Amino acid sequence: MGIKEKSIDLKKRMKNALSGGGEKAIEKQKAIGKLTARERIIALLDPKSFYEYDLFVEHAGKDFDMDKKYLPGDGVITGTGTLSGHPICIYAQDFTVAGGSLGWMHAKKITKIMDHALKLKVPLIGINDSGGARIQEGVNSLAGYGEIFFRNTLASGVIPQISVILGPCAGGAVYSPALTDFVFTVEKITKMFITGPEVIKTVLGEEISMEALGGAKVHCETTGVAHFYAESEEECFNQIKQLVSFIPWNNINKAEKFPKKSPKTKRYKMEEAMPADPKQPYDVRNVIKAIVDDSDFLEIQELFAKNIVIGFSRINGETIGIVANQPLYLAGVLDVDSSNKAARFIRYCDAFNIPLFTLVDLPGYLPGVDQEHAGVIRHGAKVLYAYSEATVPKITLITRKAYGGGYIAMCSHHLRADFVFAWPTAEIAVMGPEGAANIIFRKEITTAKDPEEMRKQKVKEYKEKFANPYVAAAYGYIDAVIEPNETRKIIMHALDISKEKKVQTPMKKHGIPPF
Amino acid sequence: MDKNDDKKIRFSSINIDGVKYKTLLTEKFKHRTPYVETNLNIMTAFIPGTIVDVYIKEGKKVKEGDTLLILEAMKMRNVIQAPYAGSIKKLYVQKGDLVSKNQALVEME
Questions:
Q1: Which domain holds residue B97?
Q2: In A, residues 213-242, which contact B (CB 8 Å cutoff)?
Q3: How far apart are the first and last CA of chain B?
Q4: Which of A329, A361, A463 best probes binding to B when mutated, by most B CB atoms within 10 angstroms?
């Protein structure tokens, strides 16, 4: 055979391997609003940028007549490409081939591209769509998962790892996404659980649909397993593109710098964004949008633990991570879920050199037996740990209430914030004036002729004396009390002069955060 | 939420340290399980499963450690024993019943 014939032979082989699970399986995939694995990669990456590897890998199953079967690409597509011009490693499980089941060679393809990503220090995107372990390959399937989890852990904090759940992801398979940084889900397509509805029904007699057990909404709202919710695969891919525009491509480089843009001040007016009365609710996202470049805020875990808001924005064209109490929900308290949500995000930002901007307005921690018994002590401690441990520039703005333990936890000077600013509306105190006055003046109130009148008077006195930023400022716990309209200018300056920040921390293998 | 939507929203309130804050509640908060004090006389299922054997009747006297029921769950036969000597006040389940977690099985006195 000459080179021409050999090329024709190659094309024939490629055509065969590229056929996936065949027309019928592809039709079935499309009928439920899903793209095929290869189409997904092409839709996500820059046009014509994808190069596929290991197309001719064959499965290693020997038992149960598997050796007679041909599984194109062994049910997974791997390769490299570019996303918004940056290099990226990617894999996508092909549900049309043996249900995307994970056998030894399937796992080998994935771990090979993972090793590649880690070596080249480029982000890794995994598109999950798999029925689970390939039972016929037995313990080798389990070994495959283990090898993936190990690499997820090794790569954690070195390169961004993104999981996209576009189909079932069940049993052990769920732990790869759980170990990665961001999990994307799509309504009616994502299905994630350890044990499925059938097992739950036979063993426990409880009936539940796949969607209600582990659909996109459940993981975005209730469990906190996922970070992004979309109604279609297309919307999901756009969210991924948006996210990767904000994050650095590894833990050495900085995120891409964008042209500096002013906030949309016509729509987001600082003086209208927040009522001065600390008991009144407002949407803290309007305050964020009045400060950041182009009023552009990419919220993460928007539907989970809504009492805290986390996400990315830019100031002066550079990415910052934002953590903000959200008075609109549960008065912005810290609780089990919001602590977990914030702590993990803080650690993400610290690992990838993203400065932290914290907006504080919280009455403290959520009271309740359910919270105490759910371990709010150890979960709440994660926020303290994450902020204390973080060595990136840390800038804090107290807009209104900062009471009790909540004040300490929300990146106070005591946890080594670089700058703590406060608006004149700020109240830094051990608790709300009503509660404090009731305790301090208990005797005066109970023995007064008119206790209610006395109580009111004492609350008023306490408010006048302590419900302000000046007591804390007098001790130097606040660096500057600033006019709200000056906020952007001051934050910009604070970020600017923190650029070369270097902190020496005690030598250790790693800390022991309250996981 | 844009500021103009403010009027349409129906706020609730939440009390922290004696101060009532106007705010919205999350679904998870609304559906949190209220605390109920444990009644030590009632034996509950510590795991969901099936009652595969019942060795007692209402009114029967039992000694500490007597087997009351077998609760099969995750392929294990769990022996439910009498925690103290007494009598069976009420039997909530029968052989073959599927029980959910924390469901009452037997009340003793």
A1: 42-108
A2: 221-222
A3: 56
A4: A329
* Contact check, Cβ <8 Å, B17/A327: no
A434 CB within 8 Å of a chain B CB: yes
Facing residue for A307 by CB, picked from B19, B20, B26 = B26
Partner-chain contact A305 B26, CB within 8 Å: yes
How many CA atoms are closer than 13 Å to the CA of A384, on its beta-carbon side?
Answer: 14
Kind plus residue range of the DSSP H or E element containing B50: strand B49-54
Q: What is the pLDDT along chain A (515 residues), one digit of tens a residue?
A: 899 999 999 999 999 989 888 899 999 999 988 999 999 999 999 999 999 999 999 988 888 988 888 888 999 999 999 999 999 999 999 999 999 999 999 999 999 999 999 999 999 999 999 999 998 889 999 999 999 999 999 999 999 999 999 999 998 899 999 999 999 999 999 999 999 998 888 777 788 999 999 999 999 999 999 999 999 999 999 999 999 999 999 999 999 999 999 999 899 998 889 999 999 999 999 999 999 999 999 999 999 999 999 999 999 999 999 999 999 999 999 999 999 999 999 999 999 999 999 999 999 999 999 999 999 999 999 999 999 999 999 999 999 999 999 999 999 999 999 999 999 999 999 988 888 888 999 999 999 999 999 999 999 999 999 999 999 999 999 999 999 999 999 999 999 999 999 999 999 999 999 98
Q: State the ipTM, two decimals.
A: 0.85
Query: CATH: 3.90.480.20, 3.20.70.20, 3.40.50.150, 3.90.226.10. Which one for A34-180+239-246?
Result: 3.90.226.10
Closest chain B residue to the Cα of A365, Cα to Cα: B16
CB-CB neighbors (< 8 A) of A307 in chain B: 26
Minimal C-alpha gap between A287 and chain B (Å): 11
Kindly state the DSSP code that residue B83 receives in the 8-state scheme.
Answer: S
Subunit contact B16:A368, Cβ cutoff 8 A: no
Q: Which residue has the tokens 């994970």?
A: A102
* Residue B9: strand, helix, or coil: coil
Number of residues that make up chain A? 515
Cβ–Cβ gap B23/A328 under 8 Å: yes
Across the interface, do B25 and A330 touch by the CB < 8 Å criterion?
yes
**Any idea where the domains of chain A sit in the sequence?**
34-180+239-246, 270-430+468-497, 433-466
Domain A270-430+468-497 adopts which CATH fold? 2-enoyl-CoA Hydratase; Chain A, domain 1 (3.90.226)
Cα pseudo-dihedral A48, A53, A59, A60, rounded to 10: -170
CATH number reported for the structural domain that contains residue B56 in this entry:
2.40.50.100
Between chains, do B23 and A281 touch, taking CB under 8 Å as contact?
yes
HEC letters along A264-281: CCCCCCHHHHCCCCCCCC
Smallest CA-to-CA distance from B3 within A400, A326, A293, A284 is with A284
Contact by Cβ (8 Å): A20, A96: yes
CB < 8 Å to B73, chain A: 203-204
